[in-house]
Amino acid sequence: MYDLLKVLVANLMMPLPVSLGLGLLGLLLFRWQRRWGVALMGLGLGVLFLASWPPVAGRLLAPLESRYAALDTLPDDDVLAAVVVLGGGWEPDSPRSAVGRLSDSSAMRLMEGIRLWRQRPELPLIVSGASRDPDIAPVAQGYADAAAELGVPEDRLVVLDTPTDTGREASAVHDVLGEGSQVVVVTSASHMPRAIHHFQQAGLLPVAAPTHYLARHQRRGRLQEWVPSATELRKTERAVYEALGRLAVSWEH
Hints:
elongated
């Protein structure tokens, strides 16, 4: 129940639902309180504009994505215990290849995880993630199918298909590898700060391997840097989602 509540609150707090909610409330008030109605409708449009505006979206997301540098090569030591790819989204019933059924973020996480794992193929590649919907197969299974298609041997794969959030993923990895294990954590760059916190809290020694960057480096003076777009709105949504995630972590502890 708590997991479903977290998802519901996160969805309702995204910029688009907030903007639509303010606009609808303003429209309802317009007949009786015209000034307040206009103010709320204007506020709704303002929230949507700012959330979709590149200068705002980039400044919200870039600090999260730049917290940890990209990992070109694995640490050159013998204490590394595993490469861990955190769960994301996928469409198990889609008539596509195993890789094509993964969402953009999941595909990039898996590709990065396999790229790093190939540098130390004696290590286990741990793929993680369940589904909150019992009718949808866990994304960890989708990862395993795609990894097999990409040449990862079955005996190198460890599939954790029960954790439904990052904290549970960290605990599941701890249960498999033990206290103090050093692991490479592969996830989206914006999610990495929260993921590292969870793995440290679980008693592990995480090495960050961020991927799936959304905040792109753009040239100054280009028109696209000033035009609102759905792409920029997505960046703001990621920043808001991670802020809500950190708030949930503080509440749970």
